[in-house]
Amino acid sequence: MQSVKVGRSGLRVSGLTLGTMGWGDSVDEIFARETLHDFRDAGGTTIDTAYGYGDGAAETILGDLVPAIDRDQVVIVGKAGISRTTGSRVVDTSRGALLTQLDASLRRLRTDHLDLWLVHTWSGEVPLEETVSALEHAVRTGRARYVGVSNYSGWQLVAADAALREARIPLVANEIEYSLVERSADSEVVPAAAHTGAGLLAWAPLGGGVLTGKYRRGVPADSRAATGQHSGWAARRLGGAANPIVDAVATAAEGLGVSPAQVALAWARDRPGISSLIVGARNATQLRTILAAATTALPPEIAQALDDVSRR
């Protein structure tokens, strides 16, 4: 698996990042351990988690596994600002909330620092200068090696970058949704990241499973679109404009003798500005398919055809 620099920073991540959003929910500790082991064997170094994933279960499970791996050989990406402890989604990007969540994350993860720490989402309820001050403090105190943001629009990214520059601390990353069926970032976020020097970490590069082709004949009962708290999000990516894109991915996969998932991931991996793809697996078959994408190469003409059919 390739090692890639995040934007213009010195931070290096693996081309695929292991996502832990389902850990403690659809993924138990036994499969999480197997997944991490196989990911590391494939050359993966980067693991993405968040304070709010599984109400803390994801970080706790990862923390239980950290002693079994070489901490210096992995890059842990954490996020703060969203919680579900009240049973509903709560956004709080105040300095106090962010630093409190950071300390809780470090305890759960059994580590003294995060390699990359992100504000999980934008909030207009808190002054940007206050939110950014938490990132600055985390770096100054050694609790984060690098900092960035998540789900920021282009202008929000530029504003946050400018605020951090005053403290002489670089904003190195923006974690965003990006795939063949979700390319809204192309118009503003990608150019903004190029301008600031931030790298992009792409979540949901398979469009919630839509690009695997598993929904072409209906919605499987155990799929993301049918179950779980994210079912509505996944279902909105089915049908309509997605159909010709999914068909094109399937056609390309058949011609190349690989899976549709490999085609979709390889396309996203090679897009300008993308540093790493955040991927998760709920079973061994999904994991094997995802890891195979690390070495899948798309001929330029196929990449261009997919670009054309998916362009907004």
From TrEMBL:
| One of the record's GO cellular component terms | cytosol
Identify the domain of life: Bacteria
Every copy of the NADP-dependent oxidoreductase domain together lies at 16-309
Gene Ontology terms for molecular function: oxidoreductase activity
InterPro entries reported in the protein's UniProt record? AKR, AKR_Detox_Biosynth, Aldo/ket_reductase_CS, NAD(P)_OxRdtase_dom_sf, NADP_OxRdtase_dom
Membrane-crossing residue ranges in chain numbering? none
Per its record, how is this protein called by name? Answer: Aldo/keto reductase
| Native species | Flexivirga caeni
